[in-house]
Amino acid sequence: xxxxxxxxxxxxxxxxxxxxxxxxxxxxxxxxxxxxxxxxxxxxxxxxxxxxxxxxxxxxxxxxxxxxxxxxxxxxxxxxxxxxxxxxxxxxxxxxxxxxxxxxxxxxxxxxxxxxxxxxxxxxxxxxxxxxxxxxxxxxxxxxxxxxxxxxxxxxxxxxxxxxxxxxxxxxxxxxxxxxxxxxxxxxxxxxxxxxxxxxxxxxxxxxxxxxxxxxxxxxxxxxxxxxxxxxxxxxxxxxxxxxxxxxxxxxxxxxxxxxxxxxxxxxxxxxxxxxxxxxxxxxxxxxxxxxxxxxxxxxxxxxxxxxxxxxxxxxxxxxxxxxxxxxxxxxxxxxxxxxxxxxxxxxxxxx
Length: 352
Ligand code: PMP
Fold this sequence. Notes:
Structural class: alpha/beta
Bound molecules: 4'-deoxy-4'-aminopyridoxal-5'-phosphate
Number of helices: 15
Radius of gyration: 21 Å
CATH architecture of the largest domain: 3-Layer(aba) Sandwich
Strand order of the largest sheet: 2-8-7-6-5-3-4
Protein backbone atom coordinates (compact mmCIF):
# COMPACT_ATOMS: atom_id res chain seq x y z
CA UNK A 1 0.00 0.00 0.00
CA UNK A 2 2.59 2.63 0.87
CA UNK A 3 4.24 2.00 -2.52
CA UNK A 4 0.98 2.62 -4.39
CA UNK A 5 0.54 5.92 -2.59
CA UNK A 6 4.10 6.92 -3.44
CA UNK A 7 3.55 6.11 -7.11
CA UNK A 8 0.36 8.11 -7.21
CA UNK A 9 2.08 11.03 -5.59
CA UNK A 10 5.00 10.83 -7.97
CA UNK A 11 2.58 10.85 -10.92
CA UNK A 12 0.70 13.83 -9.51
CA UNK A 13 3.79 15.90 -8.81
CA UNK A 14 5.81 15.22 -11.99
CA UNK A 15 5.31 18.85 -13.09
CA UNK A 16 6.98 20.14 -9.94
CA UNK A 17 10.04 17.90 -9.87
CA UNK A 18 12.34 20.60 -11.19
CA UNK A 19 10.51 23.62 -9.78
CA UNK A 20 12.59 25.13 -6.97
CA UNK A 21 10.87 26.43 -3.87
CA UNK A 22 11.43 30.20 -3.79
CA UNK A 23 13.68 30.80 -0.82
CA UNK A 24 15.64 34.02 -0.64
CA UNK A 25 17.22 32.74 2.62
CA UNK A 26 15.78 35.35 4.90
CA UNK A 27 17.25 34.25 8.24
CA UNK A 28 16.37 36.85 10.87
CA UNK A 29 18.73 39.80 11.08
CA UNK A 30 18.36 43.04 12.98
CA UNK A 31 18.27 45.09 9.77
CA UNK A 32 16.79 43.46 6.67
CA UNK A 33 17.39 45.46 3.49
CA UNK A 34 16.59 42.64 1.07
CA UNK A 35 12.94 42.93 0.06
CA UNK A 36 12.42 46.53 -1.14
CA UNK A 37 9.37 47.12 1.06
CA UNK A 38 8.51 50.47 2.67
CA UNK A 39 10.91 50.72 5.61
CA UNK A 40 9.11 53.78 7.00
CA UNK A 41 6.04 51.70 7.85
CA UNK A 42 2.45 51.84 6.68
CA UNK A 43 0.27 54.88 5.89
CA UNK A 44 -1.55 56.29 8.98
CA UNK A 45 -5.22 56.11 7.93
CA UNK A 46 -4.62 52.64 6.52
CA UNK A 47 -3.10 51.64 9.86
CA UNK A 48 -6.09 53.00 11.79
CA UNK A 49 -8.49 51.19 9.44
CA UNK A 50 -6.55 47.96 9.88
CA UNK A 51 -6.49 48.22 13.69
CA UNK A 52 -10.21 48.97 14.00
CA UNK A 53 -11.46 46.32 11.57
CA UNK A 54 -14.99 45.08 12.49
CA UNK A 55 -15.27 41.39 13.31
CA UNK A 56 -17.80 40.92 10.49
CA UNK A 57 -14.94 41.48 8.03
CA UNK A 58 -13.47 38.23 9.30
CA UNK A 59 -16.58 36.12 9.73
CA UNK A 60 -18.08 36.84 6.30
CA UNK A 61 -16.58 36.38 2.85
CA UNK A 62 -14.90 39.34 1.19
CA UNK A 63 -16.23 40.86 -2.03
CA UNK A 64 -15.94 38.54 -5.02
CA UNK A 65 -13.72 40.67 -7.23
CA UNK A 66 -12.83 43.69 -5.06
CA UNK A 67 -15.09 46.06 -7.02
CA UNK A 68 -14.72 48.97 -4.56
CA UNK A 69 -10.94 48.76 -4.53
CA UNK A 70 -10.84 48.58 -8.32
CA UNK A 71 -12.56 51.99 -8.48
CA UNK A 72 -9.94 53.56 -6.21
CA UNK A 73 -7.01 51.86 -7.97
CA UNK A 74 -8.34 52.96 -11.35
CA UNK A 75 -8.43 56.59 -10.18
CA UNK A 76 -4.92 56.33 -8.76
CA UNK A 77 -3.38 54.61 -11.78
CA UNK A 78 -5.18 56.52 -14.54
CA UNK A 79 -7.13 53.47 -15.69
CA UNK A 80 -10.77 52.41 -15.62
CA UNK A 81 -12.24 49.72 -13.31
CA UNK A 82 -13.18 47.43 -16.23
CA UNK A 83 -9.48 47.28 -17.10
CA UNK A 84 -8.39 46.16 -13.64
CA UNK A 85 -7.93 42.84 -11.93
CA UNK A 86 -6.77 42.56 -8.30
CA UNK A 87 -4.90 39.72 -6.66
CA UNK A 88 -3.16 38.43 -3.59
CA UNK A 89 -0.01 40.42 -4.30
CA UNK A 90 1.28 41.00 -7.80
CA UNK A 91 2.74 37.48 -7.54
CA UNK A 92 -0.84 36.23 -7.80
CA UNK A 93 -1.50 38.37 -10.88
CA UNK A 94 1.66 37.07 -12.58
CA UNK A 95 0.84 33.47 -11.73
CA UNK A 96 -2.84 33.69 -12.73
CA UNK A 97 -1.97 35.52 -15.95
CA UNK A 98 0.52 32.84 -16.92
CA UNK A 99 -2.18 30.25 -16.29
CA UNK A 100 -4.65 32.30 -18.34
CA UNK A 101 -2.48 32.84 -21.40
CA UNK A 102 -0.03 29.92 -21.45
CA UNK A 103 -0.67 26.41 -22.69
CA UNK A 104 1.51 23.44 -21.75
CA UNK A 105 4.93 23.99 -23.29
CA UNK A 106 4.41 27.55 -24.51
CA UNK A 107 7.28 29.95 -24.00
CA UNK A 108 7.63 32.61 -21.31
CA UNK A 109 10.59 34.81 -22.24
CA UNK A 110 12.21 37.23 -19.86
CA UNK A 111 15.21 39.49 -19.98
CA UNK A 112 17.82 38.55 -17.36
CA UNK A 113 18.51 39.50 -14.69
CA UNK A 114 14.95 40.14 -13.59
CA UNK A 115 12.36 39.09 -11.03
CA UNK A 116 13.40 35.70 -9.64
CA UNK A 117 9.84 34.35 -9.49
CA UNK A 118 9.25 34.46 -13.26
CA UNK A 119 11.00 31.18 -14.13
CA UNK A 120 9.30 29.56 -11.13
CA UNK A 121 5.80 30.74 -12.10
CA UNK A 122 6.44 29.61 -15.68
CA UNK A 123 7.47 26.09 -14.65
CA UNK A 124 4.71 25.86 -12.03
CA UNK A 125 2.21 26.39 -14.84
CA UNK A 126 3.78 23.87 -17.21
CA UNK A 127 5.29 26.60 -19.43
CA UNK A 128 8.79 26.77 -20.85
CA UNK A 129 11.01 29.53 -19.51
CA UNK A 130 13.57 31.23 -21.76
CA UNK A 131 15.92 33.79 -20.18
CA UNK A 132 17.83 36.21 -22.42
CA UNK A 133 20.75 38.23 -21.03
CA UNK A 134 20.14 41.97 -21.15
CA UNK A 135 22.31 44.34 -23.19
CA UNK A 136 25.25 46.22 -21.71
CA UNK A 137 23.04 49.33 -21.36
CA UNK A 138 20.72 47.37 -19.01
CA UNK A 139 17.94 47.28 -21.61
CA UNK A 140 16.38 43.99 -22.75
CA UNK A 141 17.68 42.35 -25.92
CA UNK A 142 14.33 42.58 -27.67
CA UNK A 143 15.46 40.89 -30.90
CA UNK A 144 16.54 37.78 -29.00
CA UNK A 145 13.41 37.82 -26.82
CA UNK A 146 11.12 38.01 -29.86
CA UNK A 147 13.14 35.30 -31.63
CA UNK A 148 12.12 32.94 -28.80
CA UNK A 149 8.54 33.29 -30.10
CA UNK A 150 7.12 33.90 -26.62
CA UNK A 151 3.46 33.36 -25.79
CA UNK A 152 4.27 35.59 -22.81
CA UNK A 153 6.99 38.22 -22.92
CA UNK A 154 7.88 39.46 -19.42
CA UNK A 155 9.46 42.89 -18.99
CA UNK A 156 10.05 44.77 -15.74
CA UNK A 157 10.34 48.54 -15.28
CA UNK A 158 12.11 49.64 -13.14
CA UNK A 159 13.82 46.30 -13.40
CA UNK A 160 14.53 44.24 -10.33
CA UNK A 161 17.44 44.02 -9.45
CA UNK A 162 19.16 46.66 -11.62
CA UNK A 163 16.72 49.57 -11.16
CA UNK A 164 16.79 50.43 -14.89
CA UNK A 165 13.66 51.90 -16.52
CA UNK A 166 12.65 50.21 -19.76
CA UNK A 167 13.00 52.48 -22.81
CA UNK A 168 9.52 53.41 -24.03
CA UNK A 169 10.35 52.72 -27.67
CA UNK A 170 11.41 49.16 -26.77
CA UNK A 171 8.14 48.57 -24.95
CA UNK A 172 6.11 49.94 -27.85
CA UNK A 173 8.01 47.73 -30.26
CA UNK A 174 7.50 44.70 -27.99
CA UNK A 175 3.74 45.36 -27.92
CA UNK A 176 3.68 45.76 -31.70
CA UNK A 177 5.77 42.72 -32.57
CA UNK A 178 5.23 40.18 -29.79
CA UNK A 179 3.27 37.14 -30.98
CA UNK A 180 1.39 36.93 -27.67
CA UNK A 181 0.87 38.91 -24.48
CA UNK A 182 3.39 41.34 -23.02
CA UNK A 183 3.60 41.54 -19.22
CA UNK A 184 5.09 44.75 -17.89
CA UNK A 185 5.89 44.46 -14.19
CA UNK A 186 5.67 47.94 -12.63
CA UNK A 187 6.12 46.87 -8.99
CA UNK A 188 8.38 49.92 -8.44
CA UNK A 189 6.81 52.40 -10.87
CA UNK A 190 5.88 54.91 -8.14
CA UNK A 191 9.59 55.52 -7.45
CA UNK A 192 10.39 56.08 -11.13
CA UNK A 193 7.41 58.31 -11.85
CA UNK A 194 7.17 56.56 -15.23
CA UNK A 195 4.42 54.16 -16.23
CA UNK A 196 2.92 52.52 -19.31
CA UNK A 197 -0.65 52.39 -18.01
CA UNK A 198 -1.58 54.82 -20.80
CA UNK A 199 -0.41 52.25 -23.36
CA UNK A 200 -2.28 49.44 -21.57
CA UNK A 201 -5.40 51.59 -22.01
CA UNK A 202 -4.96 51.59 -25.79
CA UNK A 203 -3.65 48.18 -26.90
CA UNK A 204 -5.08 44.69 -26.49
CA UNK A 205 -1.98 42.66 -25.57
CA UNK A 206 -0.28 44.55 -22.72
CA UNK A 207 -0.83 43.65 -19.07
CA UNK A 208 0.72 46.11 -16.62
CA UNK A 209 1.26 44.52 -13.21
CA UNK A 210 1.46 46.60 -10.06
CA UNK A 211 1.53 46.19 -6.30
CA UNK A 212 0.78 47.94 -3.01
CA UNK A 213 3.68 46.05 -1.38
CA UNK A 214 6.34 48.65 -2.09
CA UNK A 215 5.42 52.38 -2.17
CA UNK A 216 2.23 51.80 -0.15
CA UNK A 217 3.86 49.77 2.63
CA UNK A 218 1.30 46.94 2.56
CA UNK A 219 3.46 43.92 1.62
CA UNK A 220 2.06 41.77 4.43
CA UNK A 221 -1.51 42.36 3.28
CA UNK A 222 -0.78 41.10 -0.27
CA UNK A 223 -2.50 43.52 -2.63
CA UNK A 224 -1.55 43.49 -6.31
CA UNK A 225 -3.33 44.46 -9.49
CA UNK A 226 -3.14 44.15 -13.25
CA UNK A 227 -4.21 46.70 -15.87
CA UNK A 228 -5.02 45.84 -19.47
CA UNK A 229 -7.75 45.53 -22.08
CA UNK A 230 -11.10 44.38 -20.59
CA UNK A 231 -10.92 40.98 -22.32
CA UNK A 232 -7.36 40.46 -21.09
CA UNK A 233 -8.05 41.24 -17.42
CA UNK A 234 -11.26 39.19 -17.50
CA UNK A 235 -9.24 36.12 -18.47
CA UNK A 236 -6.82 36.76 -15.61
CA UNK A 237 -9.74 37.18 -13.24
CA UNK A 238 -11.23 33.85 -14.38
CA UNK A 239 -7.99 31.99 -13.87
CA UNK A 240 -7.42 33.73 -10.52
CA UNK A 241 -10.85 32.87 -9.12
CA UNK A 242 -13.06 34.73 -6.59
CA UNK A 243 -12.29 35.99 -3.07
CA UNK A 244 -8.55 36.29 -3.67
CA UNK A 245 -8.24 39.62 -1.95
CA UNK A 246 -9.06 39.21 1.71
CA UNK A 247 -11.51 41.66 3.29
CA UNK A 248 -9.00 43.31 5.63
CA UNK A 249 -6.58 43.86 2.78
CA UNK A 250 -9.26 45.40 0.58
CA UNK A 251 -10.47 47.85 3.25
CA UNK A 252 -6.97 48.83 4.31
CA UNK A 253 -5.81 49.35 0.74
CA UNK A 254 -8.91 51.41 0.04
CA UNK A 255 -8.21 53.64 3.06
CA UNK A 256 -4.63 54.18 1.87
CA UNK A 257 -5.76 55.21 -1.61
CA UNK A 258 -8.54 57.48 -0.33
CA UNK A 259 -6.74 59.18 2.56
CA UNK A 260 -3.00 58.55 2.58
CA UNK A 261 -1.71 59.69 -0.79
CA UNK A 262 0.22 62.60 0.74
CA UNK A 263 2.02 60.13 3.04
CA UNK A 264 2.78 57.81 0.14
CA UNK A 265 4.14 60.63 -2.04
CA UNK A 266 6.24 62.02 0.81
CA UNK A 267 7.86 58.62 1.48
CA UNK A 268 8.43 57.86 -2.17
CA UNK A 269 10.29 61.20 -2.39
CA UNK A 270 12.31 60.34 0.73
CA UNK A 271 13.24 56.94 -0.73
CA UNK A 272 14.46 58.61 -3.93
CA UNK A 273 16.43 61.20 -1.93
CA UNK A 274 18.05 58.59 0.31
CA UNK A 275 18.82 56.35 -2.66
CA UNK A 276 20.86 59.18 -4.20
CA UNK A 277 22.54 59.91 -0.87
CA UNK A 278 23.45 56.24 -0.49
CA UNK A 279 24.77 56.18 -4.06
CA UNK A 280 27.00 59.16 -3.25
CA UNK A 281 28.28 57.48 -0.09
CA UNK A 282 29.17 54.37 -2.12
CA UNK A 283 30.83 56.44 -4.87
CA UNK A 284 32.99 58.06 -2.19
CA UNK A 285 34.08 54.54 -1.22
CA UNK A 286 35.13 53.78 -4.81
CA UNK A 287 32.03 51.84 -5.92
CA UNK A 288 29.82 52.57 -8.94
CA UNK A 289 26.17 51.71 -8.20
CA UNK A 290 23.99 51.11 -11.25
CA UNK A 291 21.70 54.11 -11.94
CA UNK A 292 18.45 53.18 -10.17
CA UNK A 293 14.88 54.45 -10.55
CA UNK A 294 13.48 52.28 -7.75
CA UNK A 295 13.72 52.09 -3.94
CA UNK A 296 16.88 50.01 -4.05
CA UNK A 297 20.40 50.27 -5.31
CA UNK A 298 22.34 47.56 -7.11
CA UNK A 299 26.07 47.87 -6.44
CA UNK A 300 28.77 45.92 -8.27
CA UNK A 301 30.96 44.40 -5.54
CA UNK A 302 33.42 41.57 -6.01
CA UNK A 303 32.61 38.41 -4.05
CA UNK A 304 29.10 39.69 -3.30
CA UNK A 305 27.98 36.44 -1.67
CA UNK A 306 30.88 36.52 0.79
CA UNK A 307 30.34 40.23 1.46
CA UNK A 308 26.63 39.57 2.03
CA UNK A 309 27.48 36.80 4.50
CA UNK A 310 29.94 38.99 6.37
CA UNK A 311 27.31 41.75 6.60
CA UNK A 312 24.75 39.22 7.86
CA UNK A 313 27.18 38.23 10.59
CA UNK A 314 26.98 41.91 11.61
CA UNK A 315 23.17 41.80 11.65
CA UNK A 316 22.54 43.56 8.33
CA UNK A 317 21.13 41.85 5.23
CA UNK A 318 21.49 43.05 1.63
CA UNK A 319 20.86 40.67 -1.26
CA UNK A 320 23.75 39.38 -3.35
CA UNK A 321 23.21 38.77 -7.06
CA UNK A 322 26.25 36.89 -8.31
CA UNK A 323 27.58 37.14 -11.87
CA UNK A 324 25.09 39.49 -13.53
CA UNK A 325 25.69 39.92 -17.27
CA UNK A 326 28.12 42.81 -18.01
CA UNK A 327 28.41 43.92 -14.35
CA UNK A 328 29.46 40.80 -12.43
CA UNK A 329 28.66 40.30 -8.75
CA UNK A 330 26.35 42.85 -7.17
CA UNK A 331 24.64 43.59 -3.87
CA UNK A 332 21.09 44.94 -3.94
CA UNK A 333 20.27 47.25 -1.07
CA UNK A 334 16.73 48.37 -0.18
CA UNK A 335 16.54 52.06 0.65
CA UNK A 336 14.86 53.33 3.82
CA UNK A 337 15.34 55.94 6.56
CA UNK A 338 18.87 57.36 6.62
CA UNK A 339 19.86 56.00 10.08
CA UNK A 340 19.25 52.48 8.76
CA UNK A 341 21.43 53.20 5.73
CA UNK A 342 24.17 54.44 8.05
CA UNK A 343 24.02 51.06 9.82
CA UNK A 344 24.19 49.41 6.42
CA UNK A 345 27.27 51.43 5.46
CA UNK A 346 29.01 50.49 8.70
CA UNK A 347 28.39 46.77 8.07
CA UNK A 348 29.42 47.19 4.44
CA UNK A 349 32.67 48.92 5.43
CA UNK A 350 33.46 46.14 7.92
CA UNK A 351 32.69 43.45 5.34
CA UNK A 352 34.66 44.87 2.38
N1 PMP B 1 7.47 42.03 -9.16
C1 PMP B 1 8.68 42.45 -8.76
C2 PMP B 1 9.60 43.03 -9.76
C3 PMP B 1 9.05 42.33 -7.41
O1 PMP B 1 10.25 42.74 -7.02
C4 PMP B 1 8.13 41.77 -6.49
C5 PMP B 1 8.46 41.58 -5.03
N2 PMP B 1 9.71 41.39 -4.68
C6 PMP B 1 6.90 41.35 -6.97
C7 PMP B 1 6.58 41.51 -8.32
C8 PMP B 1 5.88 40.70 -6.09
O2 PMP B 1 5.39 41.57 -5.17
P1 PMP B 1 4.01 41.33 -4.41
O3 PMP B 1 3.58 39.91 -4.67
O4 PMP B 1 4.32 41.59 -2.98
O5 PMP B 1 3.05 42.31 -4.99
